[in-house]
Amino acid sequence: MLPNHQSIAPSVLYFGTPVVLMVTRNDDGTANITPMSSAWTLGSCVVLGLSSATQGAINLLRDGECTLNFPAASLWANVERIARTTGANPVPPHKAELGFIHEADKFALGGFAIQPSELIRTPRIAECPLQFETRLLTCHRSAKQQGASSTRLIMEVDVQRVHAHRSIVLPGTNHIDTARWNPLFYVFRHYFGDAVDLGKTFRAEH
Ligand SMILES: Cc1cc2nc3c(=O)[nH]c(=O)nc-3n(C[C@H](O)[C@H](O)[C@H](O)COP(=O)(O)O)c2cc1C
């Protein structure tokens, strides 16, 4: 086949990863939600890519814990309702320029309910069918780019407990029912869902 590609310079490289709603505790004990998508798993760890300017990163570094909540595709509009907000007050200047505003209660704004965790103080998001309770293991700081107002943080969190809504668990097992779990994806700043099951890897257990 003849090569048919062209060289392009996209403004973002978000090739498509699941949306994660990271909940952290502010220093007054209230809960904040940070929508994110730069996340991937490595054994029992999840690696998170966060801007140092997010309130979520500041809280995670101080408190050492967070919950990771995975919204179903049907929750995309709730996620978008809080997308333009930050728990940081005042809003960092570079974000204010982009139209971000401060929001102290993203649970209320997004239509989400607080659900207490079992092992850590940080709560979960009740509407998310899949939730991880985690503790911070380590934080790597990447070099600040010239002229940048924040640095990129690569945080490793250890998953302490997994909660899955009964509707997405294969009865009597520890397996997620992939026919029922419909995660929300973030693809080049668009929300996607309803992924088609094409088959399974040789290591799948069900
Ligand atoms: C779907 C989605 C994915 C995002 N992914 C990331 C991400 O992976 N890392 C990051 O630092 N910010 C990401 N953002 C931007 C943050 O959500 C944004 O900076 C927000 O203001 C952070 O909130 P906080 O300051 O209250 O923590 C994402 C936003 C959306 C809507």
Description:
The chain is mainly beta and 206 residues long. The chain has a single domain, classed as Electron Transport, Fmn-binding Protein, Chain A (Pnp Oxidase, Chain A). The protein is built from four helices and 14 strands. The longest helix is centred in the first third of the chain and has 9 residues, at 55-63. The model has no long low-confidence stretch (mean pLDDT 96). The structure holds flavin mononucleotide.
- How is the biggest beta sheet arranged? 7 strands, antiparallel
Q: What is the CATH T-level topology?
A: Pnp Oxidase, Chain A
Quote the average pLDDT: 96
Quick one: CATH superfamily? Electron Transport, Fmn-binding Protein, Chain A
Cofactors and ligands present? flavin mononucleotide
Question: What class do helices, strands and sheet pairing give?
Answer: mainly beta
Spatial gap, N to C terminus: 37 Å
Q: What share of residues is helical? A: 10-25%
Number of strands: 14
Name of the CATH architecture? Roll
Number of helices: 4
CATH top level label: Mainly Beta
- Strand fraction equals 25-35%
Pattern of helices and strands: EEEEEHEHEHEHEEEEEE
What is the overall shape?
A: globular
Oligomer: single chain
* Tally of distinct domains: 1
Low-confidence blocks of residues: none
